[in-house]
């Protein structure tokens, strides 16, 4: 039956079928309600109300009104439309420190916590309606829950001298990983995966260009004030007469690692089947990320791309990959040994000669010194016992003055060798899932994505040895997304195969 034979009400209902939230908002509210004499009168009264409120109560009234008008609809959108919330979180993770630096007032960091809480709330609401817990099960999900539970239990660690530090560190170390389940449940289409990848690469390009601005034009007034606000900052960022660049991130290390991960993913995309102009664009992006990475002066990031390419060559062993690997190896050897007066390239070269570096030798000595403590404390000295939080809550303790430097060393010291075992099992399970799914996935596009995310997870594990790579935004959020993608991609591939009538030996909704 055609629509013209239906009653008018039913026809209107069908015409709106498939329309989203924004379509309904525009049609029902803006066009049908406000675009009328009554609507104009309401707007006039509202404007008068705002003017009187600000005149009587000051700017606080205006801020509260904006929170009500903008904040409440935003909260609704994040909970009711999780894909909108996911994109918002991914963008905010990149822009968080930039917003702080340009002077946006308020607890910006708490905004990320609120967004993640709202996404988890939306997930629970959806599960109450759908009751589809199977999609959230699997070995990787199990180890994430074990890791989260172990970190929560650390609040009762009898050996800790900085118990208050637990409150400040549990979020970045463990709770952020709950976003894994949000990504796992709500990423349900290839189109949305493409959008996520585009958002990621666009944000990375923006960060790379901003670093180039810092390198060739200079720092902003706010950044200059920050660099000279504390002698300790200058001692870390001013090396060899050259300032290390941090772009829109909190520090050069976080910036360099994110540039490396974006470059690795682009290389994996170039290896896939796609049009020539897209490969050229990906090549330009890769070059941009790698060059901007050098501006950071972070030597630990320089080894990530070559290391990831080793796994890339193993997983994609063929004649073309072998030739590419050999050419890349020759180029790398030349780059490491070529004489140069460029401070960025010179610092890059030192990354491949660690034994000649005083800071690396100092780290080795510190790690050797702390080994007896690790062996004698199986559950560690408590979450947040080392570094900044340890100095704040237990300044006279043994661990407060120990510089962990490495993510794995921090886990060993604060959570003990039991915590290190749990974390290593989690990382092993993630890599095993990625490698297995790479060979199981049939669709070429999804297979390429799986390769890219697996390489990124592998590189993050290497990066976590010389530095703490997984506790700072945006790395912690994107790492959780990378792990979720490994399972999501296999699930979408199974769905494609089932739709095509191809039998599969594995369950559809497991990881």
Automatic annotation (TrEMBL):
Localisation per UniProt entry: Membrane
Keyword Transmembrane helix applies: yes
Membrane topology: Multi-pass membrane protein
Gene Ontology molecular functions: ligase activity
Pfam families: Wzy_C
Membrane-traversing stretches: 34-54, 60-79, 84-102, 108-125, 134-153, 165-185, 192-212, 255-272, 279-295, 322-340, 415-434, 446-463
Keywords recorded for this protein, A-Z: Ligase, Membrane, Transmembrane, Transmembrane helix
Positions of the O-antigen ligase-related domain: 286-424
Signal sequence region: none
Domain of life: Bacteria
PANTHER family per UniProt: LIPOPOLYSACCHARIDE BIOSYNTHESIS PROTEIN PA4999-RELATED (PTHR37422:SF13), TEICHURONIC ACID BIOSYNTHESIS PROTEIN TUAE (PTHR37422)
Protein name: O-antigen ligase family protein
Organism of derivation: Mucilaginibacter ximonensis
């Amino acid at each position: 039956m055609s629509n013209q034979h239906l009653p008018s009400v039913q026809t209107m209902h069908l015409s709106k079928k498939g329309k989203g939230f924004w379509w309904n908002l525009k049609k029902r509210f803006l066009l049908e309600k406000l675009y009328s004499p009554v609507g104009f009168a309401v707007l006039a009264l509202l404007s008068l109300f705002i003017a009187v409120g600000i005149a009587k109560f000051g700017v606080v009234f205006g801020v509260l009104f904006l929170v009500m008008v903008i904040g409440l609809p935003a909260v609704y959108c994040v909970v009711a439309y999780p894909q909108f919330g996911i994109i918002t979180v991914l963008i905010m993770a990149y822009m968080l420190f930039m917003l702080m630096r340009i002077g946006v007032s308020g607890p910006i960091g708490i905004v990320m916590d609120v967004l993640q809480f709202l996404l988890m709330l939306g997930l629970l609401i959806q599960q109450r309606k759908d009751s589809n817990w199977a999609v959230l099960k699997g070995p990787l999900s199990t180890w994430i829950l074990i890791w989260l539970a172990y970190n929560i239990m650390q609040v009762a660690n009898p050996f800790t001298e900085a118990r208050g530090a637990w409150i400040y560190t549990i979020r970045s170390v463990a709770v952020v990983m709950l976003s894994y389940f949000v990504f796992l449940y709500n990423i349900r289409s290839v189109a949305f995966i493409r959008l996520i990848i585009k958002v990621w690469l666009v944000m990375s390009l923006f960060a790379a260009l901003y670093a180039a601005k810092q390198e060739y034009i200079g720092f902003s007034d706010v950044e200059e004030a920050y660099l000279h606000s504390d002698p300790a900052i200058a001692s870390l960022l001013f090396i060899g007469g050259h300032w290390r660049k941090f772009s829109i991130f909190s520090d050069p290390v976080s910036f360099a690692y994110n540039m490396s991960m974006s470059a690795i993913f682009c290389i994996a995309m170039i290896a896939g089947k796609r049009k020539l102009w897209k490969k050229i664009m990906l090549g330009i992006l890769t070059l941009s990320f790698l060059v901007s990475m050098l501006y950071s002066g972070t030597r630990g990031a320089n080894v990530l791309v070559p290391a990831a390419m080793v796994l890339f060559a193993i997983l994609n062993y063929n004649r073309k990959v072998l030739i590419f690997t050999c050419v890349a190896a020759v180029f790398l050897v030349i780059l490491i040994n070529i004489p140069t007066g460029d401070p960025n390239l010179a610092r890059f070269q030192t990354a491949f000669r660690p034994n000649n570096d005083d800071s690396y030798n100092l780290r080795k000595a510190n790690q050797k010194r702390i080994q007896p403590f690790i062996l004698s404390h199986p559950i560690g000295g408590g979450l947040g016992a080392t570094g900044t939080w340890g100095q704040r809550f237990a300044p006279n303790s043994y661990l407060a003055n120990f510089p962990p430097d490495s993510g794995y060393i921090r886990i060993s010291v604060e959570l003990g060798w039991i915590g290190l075992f749990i974390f290593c099992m989690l990382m092993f399970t993630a890599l095993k899932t990625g490698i297995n799914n790479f060979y199981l996935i049939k669709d070429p596009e999804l297979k390429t994505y799986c390769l890219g995310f697996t390489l990124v997870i592998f590189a993050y594990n290497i990066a976590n040895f010389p530095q703490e790579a997984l506790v700072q935004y945006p790395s912690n959020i994107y790492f959780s997304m990378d792990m979720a993608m490994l399972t999501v991609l296999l699930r979408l591939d199974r769905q494609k195969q089932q739709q095509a009538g191809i039998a599969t030996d594995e369950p559809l909704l497991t990881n």
